[in-house]
TrEMBL record:
Quaternary assembly: Interacts with TP53, p73/TP73 and MAPK8. Interacts with MAPT/TAU, RUNX2 and HYAL2. Forms a ternary complex with TP53 and MDM2. Interacts with ERBB4, LITAF and WBP1. Interacts with DVL1, DVL2 and DVL3. May interact with FAM189B and SCOTIN. Interacts with TNK2. Interacts with TMEM207. Interacts (via WW domain) with VOPP1.
Name listed for the protein in its UniProt record: WW domain-containing oxidoreductase
WW domain location: 16-49, 57-90
Native source organism of the sequence: Cricetulus griseus
A Pfam family recorded for this sequence: WW
Gene Ontology cellular-component terms listed: Golgi apparatus; lysosome; mitochondrion; nucleus
Region feature (Disordered): 1-24
InterPro entries: NAD(P)-bd_dom_sf, SDR_fam, WW_dom, WW_dom_sf
The UniProt record lists the keyword Ribonucleoprotein: no
GO molecular function, one term: enzyme binding
Keyword NADP: yes
Assigned protein family: Belongs to the short-chain dehydrogenases/reductases (SDR) family.
Length: 389
């Protein structure tokens, strides 16, 4: 049997051993199927036992699941630097109830964060969420805290942050939550935050770069940069640089960058196709709020991909995620037009409860909805937040 052979246990006469010409593979969702190379056919049932099976648990440390251009799932072992079509968990499959629909994915847009986190215990994990006093950040922080993690709410306004901490403690008085000051519009504040965090000598297992601003009129920060660009991208970029050593020390760890599908509607190249960095922090005359937001979200995506490339060999993964469209948070507060649009869209969009699953589940594992980022997907949000166990 291929899986056992892979695990170095090929000398077996188990009833699960496949007849010659058969091979077992897995789908993206972890279902096992069987391919017969002689007859060129596939089936869900084991050719000998008739059982349907699926893989159990997370991938081993250092492994990652990818999908090739033909939609075929393959696995990358970053530690030993090899690639295989065999799921390393195939040696440990479990029977599945055949009456269960095999096409349904485990999580979808209506799944709530609590459903995703059911049975998870994050005791001993340290999670840092930026912009955690409201919206997606608050729900994310709360869900982790209610599942045992030590959660730090990194917010620019301490009274709003303390109120958020109290709201979480009201739900569970034993929750380990604390607020710290972080204003992403001030690079000095980011630096102070990182110093204060490091002074605590804590690990950092999950860093959620969530804080964001949208539809702002043109303003410059104290650092002389356009505000949307600095808050949404550059401040987070700097934060991750400053905390990189802590993340690496805490590996396995992960960074989750809350981006947006709207990254598609812009680019940062000029008309000749060359990278035009002046577009990132434009002057007032070249400024359009929507475009500035989209560009900052494109930066989120590119940053996350590059971070992943650089840090994953050291056990720190990074994924960008689109949490859902037009969810009713306070993101629209800077413009009455968007306030109206978000209000009208509210009955048809995801609730905060459903959204935060995106930040948490490994919906973060369906194929890309972006040509730029092979890891960017609504349903991946939730899974991305699960620290590897
Ligand atoms: N809602 C959606 O439909 C949607 C769609 C796609 C992507 N997203 C992304 O999701 C993320 C969260 O947005 P949300 O919808 O939850 O909006 P939200 O409720 O407005 O939350 C944004 C958070 O960011 C914080 N923040 C803003 N400026 C900051 C700064 N200078 N320093 C530190 N924190 C700052 C806010 O703090 P204050 O309360 O102090 O302002 C707030 O806690 C954003 O990155 C957004 O781009 C949202």
């Amino acid at each position: 049997m291929a899986a056992l052979r892979y695990a170095g246990l090929d000398d077996t006469d188990s009833e699960d051993e496949l007849p010659p010409g058969w091979e077992e593979r897995t789908t993206k969702d972890g279902w096992v199927y069987y391919a017969n190379h002689t007859e060129e056919k596939t089936q869900w049932e084991h050719p000998k036992t008739g059982k349907r099976r699926r893989v159990a648990g997370d991938l081993p440390y250092g492994w990652e699941q990818e999908t090739d251009e033909n939609g075929q799932v393959f696995f990358v072992d970053h530690i030993n630097k090899r690639t295989t079509y065999l799921d390393p968990r195939l040696a440990f499959t479990v029977d599945d109830n055949p009456t269960k629909p095999t096409t349904r994915q485990r999580y979808d847009g209506s799944t709530t964060a609590m459903e995703i986190l059911q049975g998870r215990d994050f005791t001993g994990r340290v999670v840092l969420v930026t912009g955690a006093n409201s919206g997606i950040g608050f729900e994310t922080a709360k869900s982790f805290a209610l599942h045992g993690a030590h959660v730090i709410l990194a917010c620019r306004n301490m009274s709003r942050a303390s109120e958020a901490v109290s709201r979480i403690l009201e739900e569970w008085h034993k929750a380990k939550v604390e607020a710290m000051t972080l204003d992403l519009a001030v690079l000095r504040s980011v630096q102070h935050f990182a110093e204060a965090f490091k002074a605590k000598n804590m690990s950092l297992h999950v860093l959620v770069c969530n804080a964001g601003t949208f539809a702002l009129p043109w303003t410059l920060t104290k650092d002389g940069l356009e505000t949307t660009f600095q808050v949404n991208h550059l401040g987070h970029f700097y934060l991750v640089q400053l905390l990189q050593d802590v993340l690496c020390r805490s590996a396995p760890a992960r960074v989750v960058v809350v981006s947006s599908e709207s990254h598609r509607f812009t680019d940062i190249n000029d008309s000749s196709g060359k990278l035009d960095l002046s577009r990132l922090s434009p002057s007032q005359s070249d400024y359009w709020a929507m475009l500035a937001y989209n560009r900052s979200k494109l930066c989120n995506l590119l940053f996350s991909n590059e971070l992943h490339r650089r840090l994953s060999p050291r056990g720190v993964t990074s994924n960008a995620v689109h949490p859902g469209n037009m969810m009713y948070s306070s993101i629209h507060r800077n413009s009455w037009v968007y306030m109206l649009l978000f209000t009208l869209a509210r009955p048809f969009t995801k609730s905060m409860d459903q959204e935060k699953q995106s930040v948490k589940s490994q919906g973060w594992l369906h194929p890309s909805n972006s040509q730029i980022n092979g890891r960017h997907s609504v349903h991946l949000f939730a899974k991305l937040l699960f620290p590897p166990r």
